[in-house]
Amino acid sequence: MKRKPCSVVPPTEDHDEKPNLFKRKDDETTSKAGFFSSSKQILTLCLVFRMVNSLLVQTYFNPDEHWQALEVAHRIAFGYGHLTWEWSKGIRSYLHPMMFVPLYKFLSFFGLDAPWFMIRAPRLLQSVISSVGDFYLYKLAHRIFGERVAQWTLFSQLVNWFTFFCFTRTLSNNLETVLTLVGLYYWPSFRHSSKHFLLASRKWGLVVAALACAVRPTSAITWLYVGLLELFETKDRIKFIFLEIAPIGSLVLGFTCLVDWLMYGSWIFVPLNFLKFNFLSSGGDYYGTHKWHWYFTQGFTVMLFTFIPFTIAGVFKSRQWKLFGLMAWVLGLYSMLGHKEFRFVMPVLPIALMFSGYSLASLEDTVSKDINRKISSDLRNKCPSRMQFGLFFLLVTNLPMALYMSLVHQRGSEDVMNFLSHEALEDRVKSVLFLTPCHATPYYSTLHRNLPMRFLDCSPSESRETLDESDRFMIDPVGFLSDMVKGWAVPSHIVLFDSQEKQLKEFLISHSFIEIKRFFHAHFKVDRELQGSIVVYTLTSQ
């Protein structure tokens, strides 16, 4: 179907069937863009925004942020810290936790390993990494669609509530997301220029893709689609496979195996172990399963939130089917797995927001064209109001959500460990028992004192009929604790949620424990009964 020439401008650089909106006006727009006229300024904006973002994130989201990253790094840097069962099974690579070891060493060397820095410095480091992802998303959108779409894409990325809430957390999924955005920028299938540049660009894309897969083996889902797309389009398939994929993949895999060999003390092939546990044996299902449509009806839709209509409009207006295909491919394959989490599909959220950026730029262009045509004042007032309403709608729905989830919801887990770390610094903590669902709080990486601590284990058992400690405690708190005290080393502090405290309060008082601190946690329940607050009890006779 032929489109109006005023709405779609032929690309100056790209040669593809996809429309490339606003290219004709980009030179003029860039010269007037001010702040957006310099890559350094854009990167600075992303960096400053994410650093402030990281300081505003004060809530608990996913245990892996602490237990699979910072806890491991803390153990390497300081000699103590808990390794979960995944590390004994060899299904985690040390590549991601090693990023935080130099930071911990730096803090220790300069005497900055105080509670404030130990809690916030890792997220500040992650904010630097995440800002690179924001910057490359802007560059990717600029390559494909032009300057104005890139600006609105960056707006969408920074305003989206889930990106604000999650992107500065020390999850391996966030590093995977950054590497995915960098890799897609260098990948030839998603941009078009000279052949010489394509070949050099493709090699960089392969290096970054390999690193993404090393950090998280499931990233292969993304890069399988991208690789097959390139294999279908390229004319030098043999060279692509044997002179690029094979050597680059082997080098990165060899480097990863070397790092893991040094840390594990033996040769461990993490990708294979990861594949066996999560795909061949469905080990991840132990931690819960969802219906196949969960990402489409709940997970990804919640992440996009009010950007959904803008994303859908952007998909059809841009006709960038390759990018849409990547998003659909990733969501489709992850939907086949029983165990699902929001963070698993984090790498395709920026792609969806790029389509939203296209839709917003298109809306802005409609307003500009109507004004240029000098339409009646009534219509002129209506067009800008539609654009303003769209922006107001996105801001008023996403910003409160972002701030509430980052500052309020489930903050008790972080606050209680912050409190205990200050108490330990004053030598008022001897040992801690966590009577909570397993991994419900940070651990040694926040306490930063080598004290005896105990939490309820939830490692998978050989038989799925066997209940772990965490489940047994949640079913019968009083009976579980009655059995535990028969042979326990009495802790100086006990941490538990108010939902279990109601049943255990008399028991704790009878064993000489009193409440010393209570922290708000949440207004509504998430996975289980409402955990409104988290409470600290201390032994009176110590």
Automatic annotation (TrEMBL):
GO terms for biological process: GPI anchor biosynthetic process. Its EC number is 2.4.1.-. Pfam families: Glyco_transf_22. It is a multi-pass membrane protein. Residues 12-23 have a biased composition (Basic and acidic residues). The keyword Membrane applies. One of its GO terms (molecular function) is alpha-1,2-mannosyltransferase activity. Keywords: Endoplasmic reticulum, Glycosyltransferase, Membrane, Transferase, Transmembrane, Transmembrane helix. InterPro entries: GPI_mannosylTrfase. Residues 1-23 are annotated as: Disordered. It is found in: Endoplasmic reticulum membrane. GO terms for cellular component: endoplasmic reticulum membrane. The keyword Kinase does not apply. The chain crosses the membrane at residues 158-186, 206-228, 240-272, 292-316, 323-338, 344-363, 389-407. Belongs to the glycosyltransferase 22 family. This is Mannosyltransferase.
